[in-house]
Design goal:
Layout: E1 18-20, E2 26-28, H1 29-32, E3 36-41, H2 48-59, H3 61-66, E4 69-75, H4 79-89, E5 95-97, H5 102-106, E6 110-115, E7 118-123, E8 126-130, E9 136-140, H6 148-162
Parallel strand pairs: 3-4, 4-5
Antiparallel strand pairs: 1-2, 3-8, 6-7, 8-9
């Protein structure tokens, strides 16, 4: 057991990470500098909650793109699983590989979970809105899968309005 998850918070700097997406493209903290992005962590491909969340981002992708924000999903599933999940749900954004859970650990979202009376290690559903400087603009812990895409978009619009953009 890895112990209790301790997720990063608003204002924290994104940890260094480097991985590939389902197509083999390299994605890293350094490759994303200068870009705003939402990185969301979810437990497993093709489960009801994870599918609802992924499809919520899919349905709002034009709004995210209009605000120049990339959407990136992360789970511990294999490339083959990610490809199947993307095709089945027509997801228009990349899913990142984290089979060894190192990215989830570095964001503090991998750790002890309880479900139906048993305890195990896994990814805690969390999202992080990251600015072009690599700092977390807003952290979302204990995310509700169906509500998260709309919640993040509403916050993003409010943050941009407050900044006069």
């Amino acid at each position: 057991m890895k112990g209790k998850a301790q997720p990063l918070n608003t204002g924290d700097e994104v940890p260094d990470f480097s991985t590939r997406d389902e197509s083999g493209n390299l994605i890293s903290k350094s490759s994303l500098l200068g870009t705003s992005y939402l990185i969301y962590f979810y437990p497993r491909d093709n489960t009801p909650g994870c599918t609802a969340q992924a499809c919520g981002f899919r349905d709002l992708i034009q709004d995210y793109r209009a605000l120049e924000v990339l959407v990136l999903g992360v789970s511990g599933d294999s490339p083959a699983s990610h490809i199947k999940f993307i095709k089945k749900n027509k997801l228009p954004y990349p899913l990142l590989m984290d089979e060894d859970h190192q990215i989830a650990l570095s964001f503090g979202v991998y750790g002890e979970k309880k479900f139906m009376g048993r305890t195990f290690d896994g990814i805690h559903r969390s999202s992080f809105l990251v600015g072009p400087d690599g700092k977390i603009i807003k952290a979302y812990h204990k995310v509700k899968a169906k509500l998260n895409p709309d919640e993040v978009l509403a916050d993003l619009i409010r943050i941009r309005e407050e900044a006069g953009q």
